[in-house]
Amino acid sequence: MFFLRRVRAFLDLIKFEHTVFALPFAYLGMLLAAGGWPSSGQFIWITVAMAAARTMAMSANRLADRELDARNPRTAGRPLITGAINSDTVWAGGLVATAVLAIAAYSLGPLPFRLLPGAVAFLIGYPFTKRFTLASHFILGATDALAPLGAWAAVRGSLFTRADLPAWILFITVTLWIAGFDMIYACQDAEFDRREGLFAIPARLGIGPALRLSAVCHALTTVLLIGLGAVAGLGLAYYLGVGIATALLAYEHAIVHPHDLSRLNLAFFNVNGVISLTLFAATLAALLVP
Questions:
Q1: What is the DSSP string of 26-52?
Q2: Which CATH number belongs to the domain containing residue 135 in this structure?
Q3: Structure confidence by residue, pLDDT tens digits, 234-253
Q4: Pick from 174, 173, 175: which is nearest to 224 by CA?
Q5: How many domains does the chain have?
């Protein structure tokens, strides 16, 4: 029972259930690379790699930010701060996840395994970037966007030929999408981040400008999604999905205002989860249905 309580506390700490936001975009890279559904082995190992990468990244994030989290009223109730779980357990969980990620990368082929050190550097390093650069939101976006890029590499075994252009369009698309909603999420901590001298855009530039920059990121996300469909030769089902995703992005920005952040969590969690699942389903339908 003690072990199970530790496991539950660890999964709560890293918000394991939020993996659902990131998995569909990893699968998007997988689908586009395969031109449909890949082999069962590729699907399983891409899923394992994605879950392990996110677990490792969130473990690193919680350890890196534990002193900040303790001072922030919004995050002071996290398990690592309350004592429900200790640092040793988080270290252990992160190291196990790193080992699982390495096994998954090796199983997916030579290119994913060669790319692993760079991916690990981003996954571990991104929590520190808000201490010194306004680009931290985009670095987080690029870190998350490594998932579809890695999935493409796993299926195709290449990343640097002309035929790999869809993978890089998807990489930039996900980078901007994540950066945009991370700016929205950071609005709730603007005052705290300002006091701590952190480089979050809402803290440095203000909530209004941050929300406007987020809207620009999401407008570019829509443009890139349309371009991705054209380059990859996707059909009507895909564009219907892009239309729904665009409407959801517009709704996300409509419910969050500089002087009213009460529905921020709805925008961050619910809307973005639906967007990622919608785009995955639309791409799958476009590839599998003539």
A1: HHHHHHHHHTS---HHHHHHHHHHHHH
A2: 1.10.357.140
A3: 999 999 999 999 999 999 89
A4: 173
A5: 1
* pLDDT tens digits along 131-173: 999 999 999 999 999 999 999 999 999 999 999 999 999 999 9
Among all chains, which residue has been given the structure tokens 């700016």? 183
pLDDT of residue 150: 95
Contact 80, 10 (CB under 8 A): no
Residue 100 in tokens:
């699982």
Q: How confident is the model at residue 83 (pLDDT cuts 50, 70, 90)?
A: confident
The range of the structural domain enclosing residue 243 comes to 2-288
